[in-house]
Amino acid sequence: MPIVRIIEGPVGAGKSTFSASLASRTGGVHIALDAWFAKLFSPDRPTGDFIPWYVSRKDRLLDLIWIHSQAILTSGSDVILELGLIQRQPRMDFCRKVMGSGFGLLMYELDAPREERWARVQRRNSEKGSTFSMVVPAQIFELASNMWEPSDSLEREEYEIELVSTGSCEEGDG
Question: Model pTM?
Fold first, then answer.
């Protein structure tokens, strides 16, 4: 039975690198919200307060990604979802939706020291390599890092979570 593999963690934790590697090892289909978001919406991003603009589009995109994921799962392939669910409640809501649809679920929670994550983001911003979707400025890195909520005991009791450290000796940049 195909499963949903959700990859979460703070910005710069190595999610994109980990997801690509996992897709290669499992034959699953990797879907990264940031890549879809950048292609669909970045040209229209407002210059001022973009948070309400971002949130409404992210919610719609999550719905679309889930519809697409169900089609992939029904065809027999795993999906590897990198969705930027950095806050606990929206992440739990999404995971409950997955489980309520009858699919298996495994979440990988990645993390690395903040300084290392920032160095990765700066490198990704300048190199614009394979995991690059959009420039992440310092203020957005700080905002997203401060909003990150790691899993708690309630979340870990509800579904399987594998904790993955990508610090120091790992080469992640997601």
Answer: 0.88
What are the structural domain ranges in the chain?
3-165
DSSP notation for the chain: --EEEEEE-STTSSHHHHHHHHHHHH-PEEEEHHHHHHHHHGGG--SS--HHHHHHHHHHHHHHHHHHHHHHHHTT--EEEE----SHHHHHHHHHHHHHTT-EEEEEEEE--HHHHHHHHHHHHHH--TT--S---HHHHHHHHHH-----HHHHHHS-EEEEE-SSS-----
Convert the pLDDT of each residue in 69-80 to its tens digit: 999 999 999 999
- How many Cα atoms within 13 Å fall on the side-chain side of residue 65? 27
Q: Domain 3-165, what fold?
A: Rossmann fold (3.40.50)
Q: What is the pLDDT of residues 26-55, one digit of tens each?
A: 999 999 998 898 888 877 776 777 677 788
> Whose structure tokens read 């027999």?
76
DSSP 121-146: HHHHHHH--TT--S---HHHHHHHHH
Closest CA to 28 of 103, 86, 89, 109: 103
